Structure formats: structure tokens, C-alpha cells
Amino acid sequence: MSRDSEQKISDAQTLGQTASARLGRPVDLAKEAKILEAAKNAFLESPYDRISMDALAARAGVSKVTLYAKYRSKDQLFVTAMSVGCSPIYQQAMLEVEAGKPLAETLERLGIDFIKMMLNPEISALHGVMMQALATRPELPRTFYERVVHHSTLILAEVLTIADKRGEIACDQPYMAAVQFIAMVQGEFRYKQELGVTHGVDEDELTQFVKSCVRVFLRGWGKI
To answer: What values do phi and psi take at 72, rounded to 5?
Structure first.
């Protein structure tokens, strides 16, 4: 494994540990879920620049002190709200591979869940909010990339590293392989959704497509 790949894997582990530490006690988890749900609804209903942290605190039923203790800025809260559907998909993949589940099955499940998440109308709408905010908040997409897209890719890279160590694949560039897989499974589903060509997805079509992607991916990395 290259030094760059090892560093990226180390970054993923550090980010995961930091995220776990931030969640805190169960009561904090419930409060955080309430905050994120309120924030998500607010961002979907109003232009980004018209939403204040004070208004978000009131909507969530928490004090400003509590809100700022968890989120330093509106940008951070927005990015976290957008990542709610994404993070569990990759965290589940890590749990599965650590439990010994075959990589092919894990990738199939991840691919299907990923596409369904991307096609979720709320997720699509939040992406639209982020793009609209570009004019006044150009740093927002970069923050989203670093904290959600890049972080998720690092987790998948670690999944592939574990699979490599137990001989399921021969992957000396796990981060690049993770990027390839994520790009592959998106196919044309996301583009159709964004362009309004279609809404929703046929379950059988999605399943067959993702299974085909997994076969190609594993064949490309040398074990089938």
C-alpha cells in the first residue's frame, strides 16, 4: 500500500473516532437528532441565507448555547444534516466486513442503499439548496466534499483494505478503488433524477445493475 493510501486510511479512522466521541451520551443523541431534523426541514423550506442559527435553535427547541456547543456555524450544521442519510450506509459496510461478511454482498448492499439515498427527494432538494448557496457561500460545497464525500470514501477504502488483507481482492490502492466503485454504481440513475427524466427507480433494474457493477469491480481488482 502506498504511503498516501495509508495516510488516508489513518485519516478515516481518526475521523470515525472523533465522530463517535462527539455523539456523547444517549440523551445527546436524541437531542442531536431533533436538531438535525429541524435544520433539514428549515433548509428545505427557506432560502439558505435567510435562515439564522437563532431561528434554528428555536425550531429545534434548544437554546442557542446548546446549538453552538454542537455546531460552530450554520454551514457545519447544514453539512451534518445532509450527511445523515449517507454516513450509516458506509458505517454499516465497515461493520459487515469486520464481521466477516463476503465483500461482494457488502458492496451490493452498499451500492443499492447508496443509489436509493441519492434518489431520495429530500437529499436531492438539499443538494439543490447547497448549489443555490454557492453565490454567497462558495466554501459550502468544499466543506460538504471534505466532511461527507471524502470521509465516506475513506471508510469504503478501509473496507477494501480489510478485504485485501483477508485475500478477497488484491487492492494496493484502496482509496482509488473506492472512488471507482462509487462512481460506477451511480450509473445514469442520478443523472436521470437530476434532469427530471425519471422519478424513483425500478428495484429489479437497480439490483441487477449494482450486482453487475460489483462483478466488474471485483474482476478488475483481481480475485474473480
So the answer is: -75, -25
Q: How many CB atoms lie within 10 A of CB 16?
A: 18
The answer to whether residue 215 is domain-embedded is yes
| CATH assignment at residue 99 | 1.10.357.10
Q: Cα–Cα distance between 67 and 123 in angstroms, integer? A: 23
Residue 60 included in any domain: no
Instruction: For residue range 182-215, list pLDDT tens digits in order.
Output: 999 988 887 777 777 766 678 899 999 999 999 9
Cell numbers placing 17:
473516532
Provide the pLDDT for residue 95: 96
Range of the domain at 213: 3-19+84-220
- What's the mean per-residue pLDDT of the chain? 84
Sign for the CA dihedral angle at 222, 107, 117, 89 comes to negative
Q: Residue 182 to residues 57, 108, 111: CA-CA distances in angstroms? A: 35, 11, 8
In a domain, 38, yes or no: no
DSSP label at residue 1: -
- Is the entire prediction scored with pTM above 0.85? no
Number of structural domains (the chain) is 1
